[in-house]
């Protein structure tokens, strides 16, 4: 069983986790870096804009082919990652309500990404050969606290 990475937690907190999510590790790291420290409602609204491709996530690393966006530097629209993180935010919001926390004053204390297993598959090719095809998995953790 996996443990949470953050050991010293605030007094009033809620936490949630998603395991083995089939998304890009690099995109996940950039999205989580952007959301860390935001209010939960603001993060939720911003991610919904990202899914609609009306707002971009600024990227800091791996910028070889990343275009500049209006009002910021290099950025992208990681829609698939945003949908899964919205699901994670809904989970932690439900956990906070269950613990009688004020949902409007929640702040993202910690959100992080861990690389999961890599699933190795093979694509058949001509003349009896095959090519390896790798699918990466990601684990998400989120901890929110009352402001």
Please provide a written account of the structure.
The protein is α+β, with helices and mostly antiparallel strands. It has a single domain (13-146), classed as Ribosomal Protein L22, Chain A (Alpha-Beta Complex), CATH 3.90.470. Helices cover 29% and strands 33% of the residues. It has helices spanning 25-35, 40-51, 79-98, and strands at residues 13-21, 57-58, 75-76, 106-124, 130-146. The strands form 2 sheets. The chain has a 3-stranded antiparallel β-sheet, covered by helices on one side. A two-stranded antiparallel sheet has the order 2-3. The longest helix is centred in the middle third of the chain and has 20 residues, at 79-98.
Question: Which properties best describe this structure?
Answer:
single chain; 147 residues; alpha+beta; Ribosomal Protein L22, Chain A; 3-stranded antiparallel β-sheet; two-stranded antiparallel ribbon; 5 strands; globular
